[in-house]
Amino acid sequence: MNVSKRPELRTGEKYFTSLGAGYETEAFSGLGPAWISDRELNAVRTALRGMPKGAQVLDAGAGNGRATKVMGDELGLDVTALDAVPEMLASILEERPSTKTVLARLGVPLPFDSETFDAVISLRVLKWVPAWEHALTELARVLRPTGRIAVEITNRRSIARFGYRNAAVIPVTRSAARDVGERAGIEWIDEIPGTHLPLVIWRMGKGNTSMRLLTGSQAIADHVLGSTGARSVVLVGRKK
Ligand SMILES: C[S@@+](CC[C@H](N)C(=O)[O-])C[C@H]1O[C@@H](n2cnc3c(N)ncnc32)[C@H](O)[C@@H]1O
């Protein structure tokens, strides 16, 4: 299922085309950002816990395949990686040649039949898609009944979202994302908060002492605030 026609690019996609395979270095270098990344991947592990080996999973906006690799190599799932930027898919194939890749865009109809996948995940993507409601509705459409979904959204009600600096991200509220999902037939079953501290603070995590301070503050914020005010939230749901 390797599709090769390059779609017309929009703002967020152009940004990632310029970063190409360097995206991972930009996003995750340093102990603090790497810790945030692990936390998000743990949210995926939690969301997909107990899925049978070989289950069909869509990684929507797969980037360099951070989650594709966890789901394929560690959880034994059959992953399809979709992205609008060919360089991203090429970097996944370089490292994991068996991955099914699809060059397509979220925000327009997806090139899959309804009820194709047992699970769908999308991390750090909807914030780049102006038509994010349509994208989320399409992710629900291609999910089988009882299938799982885990989508990360940027929380508009978080001060930590200012950590995105000048990037053209589209923050939404948790309740807006939940409403769109529910209208598309999703029952939300969990909400896994991202960090409460802006990225610029996490970038200061360079050694054991600073990381202990940061993760300690985060643990307190998790305990006291839960998802409220978190910079991003992974919403976990099930198709009815
Ligand atoms: C921040 S990266 C996240 C990658 C991966 N999900 C991760 O968490 O490591 C965002 C990805 O979304 C892709 N993207 C942006 N807009 C998109 C769209 N409308 N349709 C599909 N992919 C898109 C970008 O090319 C990029 O690979």
Instruction: Summarize the helix and strand pattern as letters.
Output: HHHEHEHEEHEHEHHE
- As a percent range, the share of helical residues equals 25-40%
What molecules are bound to this protein?
S-adenosylmethionine
Percent strand: 15-25%
Poorly predicted runs of 5 or more residues? none
Which CATH-level-2 architecture?
A: 3-Layer(aba) Sandwich
- Determine the CATH topology: Rossmann fold
Give the overall form.
globular
Counting structural domains, the number is: 1
> Quick one: biggest sheet?
7 strands, mixed
| CATH-level-4 superfamily name | Vaccinia Virus protein VP39
Report the mean per-residue pLDDT as an integer.
90
Rg, nearest Å: 17 Å
Describe this structure as you would to a colleague.
The protein is built from nine helices and seven strands. It is α/β, with parallel strands linked by helices. It has one domain: Rossmann fold, CATH 3.40.50.150. Strands 3-2-1-4-5-7-6 form a seven-stranded mixed sheet, with helices on both faces. Helix 6 crosses helix 7. The longest helix is centred in the last third of the chain and has 18 residues. The two termini are 27 Å apart. The mean pLDDT is 90. The site of S-adenosylmethionine has 20 residues, from helix 1 and helix 4.
Keywords:
240 residues, binds S-adenosylmethionine, 7 strands, 20% strand, Rossmann fold
Topology (SSEs and partners):
Layout: H1 11-19, H2 23-28, H3 31-47, E1 56-60, H4 66-74, E2 78-83, H5 86-95, E3 100-103, E4 117-122, H6 132-141, E5 143-154, H7 174-183, E6 186-193, H8 199-202, H9 208-225, E7 232-239
Parallel strand pairs: 1-2, 1-4, 2-3, 4-5
Antiparallel strand pairs: 5-7, 6-7
This protein binds S-adenosylmethionine (SAM).
